[in-house]
Amino acid sequence: MKASKLVSPFRLSSLLRGQRTQFSPCNSSKTLPGFKPSIPKPLSLFSLLHMTSSFTKLGAPECSTNWEQILHQLKQETRSLHPKSSSAMSSHSTAALVSPTVHSNWVEDYGTPDACTYNILIKAACGSEDLDNACKVFDEMRSKGVHPTDVTLGTLIHKLCSSLRVKEAFELKDQWERVHGVLPNAFVYASLMKGLCGIGEMTLAFGLKEEMVRKSIQLDSAVYSTLISALLKAGRKGEVSGLLKEMSEYGCKPNTVTYNAMIHGYCKEKDFEAAYRVLDEMVEKGCKPDAISYNVIIDALCKAGKWSEANLLFQDLPRRGRNPDVLSYRMLFSGLCDWGQFKEAAFILDEMIFMGYAPHYARTHKLVEGLCQEGNTELLGTVLSSLGKGNVLHGDTWKMVISTVCKEKLLNVSELVDTLIVQ
DNA sequence: TTAGGGTTAG
């Protein structure tokens, strides 16, 4: 069944890519990340795919009407997309597109897929455990005469390396150069280097850097960030300055990721002075620290028992031009709980929930447990109220509270009911 | 104009 009007390869790729934004809580600061909206409005392609794929074979004649509807919806929804926003659902939503593509070729009915289109689908297929789906998309790509690019190679290599299948990644790299004439670029090399470091082959990773130089492949900041991070994780911080020097000789400037790798390295050694110096250097060099830069320090301070200092840095974020994100809250909250700072933790929890961020169940449960054991009924009420406001008061937590309260006679029944009513 | 890598927790 043909669609009434075909779209360009560019538009088709954009439509596919745009699907990743459907579940971003961009319209409501009160939507808790990690909590899936039960019925997205308007009905998205993702939800339609789920409805159809759950009870019928995709591409089968009986669901052709649904596919038409889906594709129509796809066209209608593009205007409201936010291409740069991200969401935990991103890979899942595009992944839902892959299977029907392989089996029904419906993409073709809607436009002419180009390399970019297939690369997006291959990337989505890489979200699953094995590479079977990705291979199917690749086979289809080849059968349609679409030539793979260095992006296709980079996507597959990345998947293999992140699964620690480094040997296969190297085989693919060599094979593609021979068979498809696709040359590996810095994206490919960075993945390979990270993969090698992940299996303890740092010497080989550095050897790849030399290979890039030999083959006149442009080195970039990501390649150096990978190696710097690996050196610091291996406790070889003495070699970092040499790499930074070499980096500058090749005309690569350290970026936020490079600096973050260094901050992480210093924090691991509890050298917070050095970590703060990196922050200052970033500002001096016009490279704005991001959430990761601060979260790494906050987390390390908490783990080192310096929860008060972590809290100070956290409170200082707005002045530094960066609001705390969900991880900043979670890390500080965990740290405060770990060190028994229940009052501060309860305050951060309430603010976190007010901001629309979901705490981890295990953490909040443990806090409530601690307060029950302490018999701190006042703070217990505050925490339960916060959890209730965010609709994140888990049934098990509530059961534990009731059981403890009844056993210890900490509160009278009417107080409990009052708290419950607030929910 | 669209696609891929490198830096935080659990």
TrEMBL record:
PPR repeat residue intervals: 114-148, 185-219, 220-254, 255-289, 290-324, 325-359
Domain of life the protein comes from: Eukaryota
UniProt-listed InterPro entries: PPR/CCM1_RNA-binding, PPR_rpt, TPR-like_helical_dom_sf
Pfam family, one: PPR_2
Record key words, sorted: Repeat
Transmembrane segments annotated in the record for this chain: none
UniProt feature coiled coil, ranges: none
PANTHER family membership: PENTATRICOPEPTIDE REPEAT DOMAIN CONTAINING PROTEIN-RELATED, TETRATRICOPEPTIDE REPEAT (TPR)-LIKE SUPERFAMILY PROTEIN-RELATED
Name of the featured protein: Pentatricopeptide repeat-containing protein
